[in-house]
Amino acid sequence: MQTVIRNSYNPILKELIQCYIFFNHTHGYPIHYTTFPNTNLCLALYQNNQISYLKNATENRCILNKGVGKFSSRIYAFHQQPFQVDIHAEVDQICIIFHPGALTAFTKERYAALLDDDHPFERIFKEDSSVLAELFAADDQAKRVVILEELLVKSIIWQRNEMRLGKLLQHIHSPLAQELHVEQLAKEMNINVSTLYRIFMAEVGQSPKKYLQTLRFRKALDAMKYSKKVDLTAIAYQHQFYDQAHFIKEFNSLSGETPGRLIHKISLEQQQLVWRYDTSGYVTSQLQE
Description:
It is built from twelve helices and ten strands. By secondary structure, the protein is α+β, with helices and mostly antiparallel strands. The protein folds into two domains: about 180 residues; about 100 residues, Arc Repressor Mutant, subunit A (Orthogonal Bundle). The protein has a ten-stranded mixed β-sheet with strand order 8-9-3-6-5-4-7-2-1-10. Helix 4 packs antiparallel against helix 5 and helix 10 packs across helix 11.
């Protein structure tokens, strides 16, 4: 399977869109891969695939088979569980990866409703299938990005600094941010904790406490994947875990693996996508700047 990751060209969209990911699988063998909890959100677009999405307390899994319709779409959240993908057909997939809370810059639709929708692309952008036809007809990723960005720019209804959580999320993700607590975040927004909870659930899909937990996990995972020698005690201390035992327990609850075991199983795709590729098939990747 070929994987290409491209970043946004547009300075306005850079604050809203983390990247675009293009998956292309033209061989007949099945593929299984796993990605890990993150704070972002994915709008996935498909051509000629049937999608089964299973999400509950114990499972977050997407199953792709050969479809009978032409275009389909789905929103995936990766917040508290590994996201598993089973591919049983040829795939031409386009993913728009939104920064946390950024989907609300393009739609007033409720987050929970979009997660349950079988056609969220049409619901968000109010477009018919002609846009998707043009998008999938483009013969390279650069042209596809141009089409996506034209659609996204004209669909913006809120700028990042106008969104309720915009400035707060920028502060949370700042490299200078120290250990954060829910009460502190509510105070910075001049609201009470219960109101902050409702806003987070509506715009991000997680409670503030779970969001901070997932963010801490991702920072620890980033530290591990770039370290030549993994020092779990140092990583636990640097990312505000109580101790190494707390770090291992929380890491295992979010990834299904201990840090020591997972680090030997994951692959890093173009310095952006961390995944575990569980198949006898192969992946080719192409870095685009």
